[in-house]
Amino acid sequence: MNSVILSRACRVVLGLGILLVAACAAPPKSAQAVHPVETTTVESALYDQYQAWQGTAYRYGGMSKAGVDCSGFVYLTYRDQLGMQLPRTTLHQSRIGQAVSPQQLQAGDLVFFLTGPNTRHVGIALDKHRFVHASKSKGVVVSSLANDYWQQTLWQARRVY
């Protein structure tokens, strides 16, 4: 066997072993990548998810097309489209990854809002201006971050991949 091919195969096996050990040892509050996704693919995957879920009704605690809440939609999107395991709740999702400014938003960044004294909301940035989320009034929709309501309630943005 060609030594270059053998060397690459050894690096892949070693890398997979390291990833497996790291995933088992990782704290539960971090996102765990099943496979990395390129940024250009993220936007396409998000639009695929949006098209499949568009209009799905909001249901607190929901995790299906019969009804889904905001953190459930984020959880399912990351799992099914991006191959990453995120925490299930908005609060726990808000504690993972790295903070980014709204001006630095990229497709796949999580955007968090404080919509009431003890109420949080989460969506996924499609770009610097729009995000997809499970809205209580409209179900799964794309909204503008330029909207006054979303600008006033924006709490933070986080990059988890």
Automatic annotation (TrEMBL):
<feature type="signal peptide">
    <location>
        <begin position="1"/>
        <end position="25"/>
    </location>
</feature>
<keyword id="KW-0645">Protease</keyword>
<dbReference type="InterPro" id="IPR038765">
    <property type="entry name" value="Papain-like_cys_pep_sf"/>
</dbReference>
<keyword id="KW-0732">Signal</keyword>
<dbReference type="Pfam" id="PF00877">
    <property type="entry name" value="NLPC_P60"/>
</dbReference>
<keyword id="KW-0788">Thiol protease</keyword>
<comment type="similarity">
    <text>Belongs to the peptidase C40 family.</text>
</comment>
<protein>
    <recommendedName>
        <fullName>NlpC/P60 domain-containing protein</fullName>
    </recommendedName>
</protein>
<feature type="domain" description="NlpC/P60">
    <location>
        <begin position="40"/>
        <end position="161"/>
    </location>
</feature>
<keyword id="KW-0378">Hydrolase</keyword>
<dbReference type="InterPro" id="IPR052062">
    <property type="entry name" value="Murein_DD/LD_carboxypeptidase"/>
</dbReference>
<dbReference type="InterPro" id="IPR000064">
    <property type="entry name" value="NLP_P60_dom"/>
</dbReference>
